[in-house]
């Protein structure tokens, strides 16, 4: 990887030694189509991300050249930190070579998607904040709250005007989150339980970053020490922050039934999900990712879960 910098911009090039699906490895970091921290432009030729880092905010644009080289351009005080982690972000720390498929759906997805890797974003705060917003609500509700909080309490992204896509925002920092008035949480549609969990995380955000160093079950245990962060939330963070191949989102509304129908042809509860994924340990989450990426969709019966609008309560 080569690195160059001037007073305003940092650039690096990295050529992976493996097949890379650039969009696929980054997609779990995107929080819906209107995510203000993410933009895809020029028909997918460039992916833009805005993040917080230990050094400050960063804006990064990622482009893949025809020879497979990834060109990353960054702005802001955290740009060098972010670009130093480019290989990890794009799955260089992941090792899928020992994974063995035990079901046809998984085997077929593994064969068709050699570029699927589990990336490591390395920054806990940027993932635990939206993960808590997604607790026990629909995706529509959670993404709306995330958009509104970023737009009102996030900062403008570093980078030159006219180059950085319009409408992007840096996620609110822990300090900024702690200063959000109660009525603003309500306005953003965030109930008391999720607000309280986010505030607990904001108070100890600097300590939670150690989870990315511990990794694995130790990292997830550290996250679960925070009131309001359970197995599901810790797994959602672990999957994105250190590419945890075994962190399954138990307690999810959709995953047990999706996995159950894909592998067995019927719904499962969490206990059943634990049993059916047992042969895949310690790479159970990789199996789930293959199923999700395979295009399989479980049959739908009855009405969808209706969103709740906490702003009117």
From TrEMBL:
Keyword entries, A-Z: DNA damage, DNA repair
Q: Keyword Kinase on this protein?
A: no
Q: Which InterPro entries match?
A: Alkylbase_DNA_Glycosylase/TA, DNA_glycosylase
Cellular component annotations (GO), alphabetically ordered: cytoplasm; protein-DNA complex
Does the record bear DNA damage in its keywords? yes
Q: One of this protein's GO BP terms?
A: DNA alkylation repair
- Kindly list the GO molecular function terms attached to this UniProt entry: alkylated DNA binding; DNA-3-methyladenine glycosylase activity; DNA-7-methylguanine glycosylase activity
Q: What is the protein name given in its UniProt record?
A: 3-methyladenine DNA glycosylase/8-oxoguanine DNA glycosylase
